[in-house]
Amino acid sequence: MREIVIGGAQMGPIQKADSRAAVVARMIALLDRGADGGCDLVVFPELCLTTFFPRWMMEDQAEVDRWFEREMPNGATEPLFARARERGIAISFGYAELTPEGRHFNTSILTDRTGAIVGKYRKVHLPGHAEYDPDRAFQHLEKRYFEPGDLGFRVWRNMDAWMGMCICNDRRWPETYRVMGLQGAELITLGYNTPSVNSQMSDEGPEQRLYHSELSMKAGAYQNSAWVVGVAKAGDEDGHPLLGGSVIVDPNGFVVARAETEADELIVHACDMDACTFGKETIFDFKRHRRIEHYGRICSQ
Ligand code: CDT
User: Fold this and answer.
1) What integer pLDDT is reported at residue 205 of this predicted model?
2) Which of 52, 207, 232, 235 could form a disulfide with 193 if both were Cys (CB 3.0 to 4.6 A apart)?
3) How far is the CA of 128 from the centre of ligand 1 (A)?
């Protein structure tokens, strides 16, 4: 048995005016809750240091760059790393990354139990649009503020397991999970900021959006025989509602823990990485059963 007790640290809303320090204090409180509950790894949401700023149209690049982190850890997040180190807990969280070369990515990192960063992922599937769209009920300008990730879908050996990451919209794409599954991923962690309503379809509400969110993660878990931990930033951010519904999904595609609120909430499950082995050696033994001669279209235009 290779058990990793995982905490999904759903976060309630972060308002535009909230400081990084206030957010990090909330993350530390969740981390402490996880440590007290025996967690080995705590997973936080996408862009979890700030409000979901891509909903705001900004033309001044200096204003945009205020939402980005130039290094990680930095002054604001060091207390989180220090507490994780002190309590011997690995963490994963998402933030907006501005590189020394001036490139902008929607990024997440994974640490080991000593607080050392062992993995970095930059979001590949950027939803939304790049220019102001007057026909939408609200904006989703990820394509304006980020470039597509350049690191691919890697996996890392951490805590005696193969771990990979993706971010939000990536969870809806089967290729995301499969590329990690092909590298033996046993745990895929992700954070999300998903508006509760569709900005382009007024009657698509939270029920359907929660259903699709969960459906995607269950399918990704089952079809790759891997644990999937999906963690929301939820609730009302300056009048813009975001879905909750954080889940831990087992390698058979069953939800074993689910958040009930749209606030800061920790969901916990003891995840046995050996539970991935049966599926990986039988129905989803990729070496024996895949028929790549028929998959060419997936990798062509
Ligand atoms: N953050 C993020 O990727 N959100 C998207 C919203 C898509 S609607 C433009 C998601 O897939 O949940």
Assistant:
1) 87
2) 52
3) 7
Tell me whether 0.90 is exceeded by the ipTM.
yes
Asked if residues 112 and 118 have their Cβ atoms less than 8 Å apart, the reply is: yes
The pLDDT value given to residue 273: 98
CATH classification of 3-299, choosing from 3.10.25.10, 3.60.110.10, 1.10.220.110, 3.40.50.2300?
3.60.110.10
76-95: per-residue pLDDT in tens?
A: 999 999 999 999 999 999 99
Torsion-angle region of residue 152: left (phi > 0), alpha (psi -120 to 50) or beta?
A: left
State which residues of the chain have pLDDT below 70: none
Domain-wise residue ranges, the chain:
3-299
Is the CB of 194 inside a 6 Å radius of any atom of ligand 1? yes
| Residue 280 annotated among the catalytic residues of the structure | no
Among candidate residues 87, 73, 109, the one with its CA nearest the CA of residue 36: 87
Nearest CA, atom 1, ligand 1: 193
